[in-house]
Amino acid sequence: MRFHSLLAVLAVILLCFFIKNGRGICENRNLTKACKKKSFVQLILTKNLTAFNDNRKGICRWLKELKHQSRLCKKRKGLAEIINATRDLTLNSCTHHFEYEQWPCLRLKRLFKKVYRETAFVYSLTTSAFMWLVARACAAGMLEDCACAATSGKHSTAHAHVNVTAGGWRWGGCGDNTKFARRMTYKFFQLKKRGDKTQNILKYSSEVGVKAVIRSEQKVCKCHGLSGSCTYRICFKRLQPFSVITEDLKSRYHSAERISSDNDLWRPPSQKEWREEEEVAADTLRYLDTGPNWCQFTAGRRCKDADNCATLCCGRGIRLKQTTTKEPCKCRWRNDTAYQVVCEQCDKEETVYHCQ
Ligand SMILES: *[C@@H]1O[C@H](CO)[C@@H](O)[C@H](O)[C@H]1NC(C)=O
Ligand SMILES: *[C@@H]1O[C@H](CO)[C@@H](O)[C@H](O)[C@H]1NC(C)=O
Ligand SMILES: *[C@@H]1O[C@H](CO)[C@@H](O)[C@H](O)[C@H]1NC(C)=O
Ligand SMILES: *[C@@H]1O[C@H](CO)[C@@H](O)[C@H](O)[C@H]1NC(C)=O
Ligand SMILES: *[C@@H]1O[C@H](CO)[C@@H](O)[C@H](O)[C@H]1NC(C)=O
């Protein structure tokens, strides 16, 4: 009996040894230091930042167990604020967009034991939040050594006098710097290095996030000219609001595929510089382990409507409650003061659904 448990412990030690730098995803965290090593995503979603976040030095210090990221944090002005904001943006959009899902983006700590569907999702979401914030920060001049996206290629300033009536335009203005943000994200999340199976799948998940940001890029044009005329049009690339990216990734969370090996899942990115025109293939989130059944945690949860309750309550039935709330109604312009709207308060009957 004792011999068997000794064998088991040995096996776990060996396992930990093989998944060293195991990004904290490890069977028994007590055994080796490597097993305890957390990834940036794990740290940012589970470690309390409150005591550190009053200044940028504090935030870099908070990252100190991650040598690579903490060094980058100290080196580049503006990055600490982005790291802080990455945490808020990831957590806020995750809880907001998963409010009516079986997994409400809670119990994050248990996600890092294995590679569940949820694990793959939070990796992609955190990575895209970081990249989105970097691209925006460049355009806003809030990150050292980067600026607005360079105006490039065939539509450059040489064609300043394009015929607007014929739909002409040129690049200009200040676009979100997606190109720089992508490079920065690859560096920060160390996406170019191949690791073991677990690491590769997580890196792949991060890449799904990077691509979601690239897909959200849009051409935005502004007219310029004397007294509101559209003499010339200047266009730049702008990332769509982060909620668009979250929704994109959320649908990939729902269609995620379980796999057993990382064969060909992750290849080192090609050496050639990424081009803006490059097609961004749709991709699927992948995970390794079947996660907890979130149904056991949905009792008492509020659902949106009958359809939503059907999935959220896992067939246990619904409790309906009629409530009355006040809401503004019969709104109209007031005669005496200009541009002021007055409303009355009306009762609104509402049915509230909860899971049994
Ligand atoms: C890890 O160590 C703590 C105390 O040091 C112990 O309570 C816990 O059971 C251990 N966990 C495992 C999985 O061995
Ligand atoms: C984080 O730490 C602060 C003080 O250091 C504490 O007041 C707060 O409750 C902690 N938050 C969580 C979620 O543990
Ligand atoms: C980090 O974010 C929090 C809000 O979540 C904010 O109160 C704090 O000032 C930020 N810290 C820095 C250094 O930007
Ligand atoms: C601009 O394009 C319109 C429509 O194609 C055409 O009628 C007009 O002559 C063009 N103007 C110039 C200055 O080329
Ligand atoms: C507001 O204007 C309408 C018609 O213009 C008039 O019938 C009404 O009595 C006015 N109400 C007040 C409060 O002056």
UniProtKB/TrEMBL annotation:
Leader sequence residues: 1-24
GO cellular component: extracellular space
Subcellular location as annotated: Secreted, Extracellular space, Extracellular matrix
Entry keywords, A to Z: Developmental protein, Disulfide bond, Extracellular matrix, Lipoprotein, Secreted, Signal, Wnt signaling pathway
Example of a GO biological process term: neuron differentiation
Pfam families referenced in this protein's UniProt entry, alphabetically: wnt
Keyword ATP-binding: no
PANTHER family attached to this UniProt entry: PROTEIN WNT-4, WNT RELATED
Family: Belongs to the Wnt family.
Function: Ligand for members of the frizzled family of seven transmembrane receptors.
Protein's name in the database: Protein Wnt
Species of origin: Callosobruchus maculatus
